[in-house]
Amino acid sequence: MCVHPGVYLRVVPTWTTPERPEPPNNPVDERAALEDRLEYQRTTLLLKCGGLTPEQLAERSVPPSSLSLLGLVRHMSGVEAWFHSYDGQPDHMFFWNYVPGATDGFGGISAARAADDLASYQASVERSRDAVRDRGLDEAIPGEDYTLRWIYLHMIEEYARHNGHADLLRERIDGATGE
Q: Is the pLDDT at 11 greater than 70, yes or no?
């Protein structure tokens, strides 16, 4: 972007702010209610990141905590693996560390990899949706006691907790608040 003859500013891309529809007040059944609430929480996390630059996403804005918005997105990429257990495929190989089974994601944050981290998150969520599409809520993870119903409830809880963290991080970054 040229702001004065011969003077150029680097345009830093920001993450897109997604649309977030409200879940229906009267879902058609339990499965729809769980899916709608989980999608709402997933979108809320991306909403908290919307409009920020990679550098802002990587900022650890509440010292001494190592949390960052980008770290939360990376962490949730790994936590989505609860659902992946249903498809019988190898663990998702995350862009951020390539360690099967790792769900942390808070260390080694790099603004330069923000687009890769978003792509990894989106791939992990899509795999989650595909892995459980035809599964019943009472169906347990192979070899485990956790049912799909429990996993949905756990994931809604996990996102809600981390979306609270995202609220605080975002407010410290640019003052933005809201649901």
A: no
Between CA 169 and CA 161, with CA 154 as vertex, the angle to 5 degrees is 15
CB of 60 within 8 A of CB of 108? no
Query: For position 100, what pLDDT does the model report?
Result: 58
- Using CA atoms, how far apart are residues 56 and 30, in angstroms rounded to an integer? 38
- Rounded Cα distance between 38 and 154, Å, is 10
**What's the rounded Cα separation, in Å, for the pair 168 and 48?**
10
Question: Which stretch of DSSP H or E encloses residue 17?
Answer: none
Q: Which residue has the tokens 């608040």?
A: 177
Q: What is the pLDDT of residues 101-111, one digit of tens each?
A: 555 667 778 89
| Amino acid code (one letter) for 29 | D
Q: How far apart are CA 26 and CA 33, in angstroms?
A: 8
156 in Cβ contact with 38 (< 8 Å):
yes
Here the tokens at position 42 are 């997933």
* 41-75 b/e (C-beta count within 10 Å ≥ 16 → b): bbbbbbbbbeebbbebbbbbbeeeeebbbbbbbbb
Q: Do 170 and 115 contact (CB within 8 A), yes or no?
A: no
